Amino acid sequence: MKDKKYEVALIKSSNQAQKLNESKIRNTIQKASNMITGNKYIKDVIGVLGPFIEMLKHSMISSSSFKLMPKEMFTIIGALVYLVSPIDLIPDFLVPIGFTDDISVILIAAQQVSTAMKRFEIYKKENLL
């Protein structure tokens, strides 16, 4: 039942992400990057967030051959929007449990874009990144 609540939160954030322009997407990526480096609880899921941010950056570069499908892109951006949003199911000021909802949303997003993550790993190997 809890997972359903987090899936709904991810869907709402993904819908918000579809309304963002490229500048706001880049701003969200930067905020998420800053949050990763500045928060010891979020660092625990950096194994997922790092590739999310890398995939978005490569997908947004016009010369890159790696492209996310729209649903994958909005799922990742939605998860990042949820991460940086001050409005959460569990407020972040309730440290450390306040980050469990953020982590849950990130992990659900990772499950939903696992195919893209595999494609990105192949892309990195082929392009020696």
Structural account:
- This protein has 129 residues and is an all-alpha fold.
- It has one domain.
- The chain has helices spanning 2-17, 22-38, 46-60, 70-84, 100-112, 114-126.
- The longest helix has 17 residues, at 22-38.
- The relative contact order is 0.18.
Describe the secondary-structure layout.
Blueprint: H1 2-17, H2 22-38, H3 46-60, H4 70-84, H5 100-112, H6 114-126
Helix pairs in contact: 1-4, 1-5, 2-3, 2-4, 3-4, 4-5
Query: Alpha-carbon distance between the termini?
Result: 40 Å
Shape: globular
Task: Report the oligomer.
Answer: single chain
Relative helix content: 55-70%
Count the beta strands: 0
Number of individual domains:
1
Residue-averaged pLDDT = 83
Radius of gyration over all CA atoms, rounded: 14 Å
Number of helices: 6
Query: Which structural class matches the secondary elements?
Result: mainly alpha
Low-confidence stretches: none
Largest sheet: none
The proportion of residues in beta strands is under 5%
Order of helices and strands: HHHHHH
